[in-house]
Amino acid sequence: MINDRAAPTLVVGLGCQRGCPASTLRALLDQALQAHRIELRAVKALATIDLKRDEPGLLELATQLNLPLRFFSSAELAGYQQRLSHQSQIAFERTGCYGVAESAALAMAEQLIQAPARLFIARQKYAQATLALAGAA
Q1: Of 95, 97, 76, which Cα lies nearest the Cα of 86?
Q2: pTM of the predicted model as reported, rounded to 2 decimal places
Q3: Which homologous superfamily does the CATH classification assign to the domain defined by 10-136?
Q4: What CA–CA distance (Å, rounded) separates 137 from 109?
Q5: Which residues partner with 49 through β-bridges?
Q6: How far apart are CA 7 and CA 96, in angstroms?
Q7: Has residue 7 got a pLDDT over 70?
Q8: Region 2-31: what's the mean pLDDT?
């Protein structure tokens, strides 16, 4: 179990298909947190790739949760390739990086904590979205 003292800053990285609703993203988030016994209040930010800057479901989820949503370029995310639990050729062809959710979670967590981060929840794939959770190593 992760509590606020053990991991004060957790970041959710998200990837999704166009048109993925906020309700789907929220269900994915709730399911992942519950499975790993992590409290939602431990999550400090959401992150994704800049190609999703105008994605309504992601924007709505950030508003619902009252969390910042940070967008990273594929070049910024590409630097995390060697740390991914799964490298997707399809993701690379579509975005220029091998994994949006894990890379974005790691990038944002490291930005917030100003130190190396690790994945607490590796890529969880669902029909329309992927999710990963990173925090202080």
Answers
A1: 97
A2: 0.91
A3: CobE/GbiG C-terminal domain (3.30.420.180)
A4: 10
A5: 72
A6: 30
A7: no
A8: 84
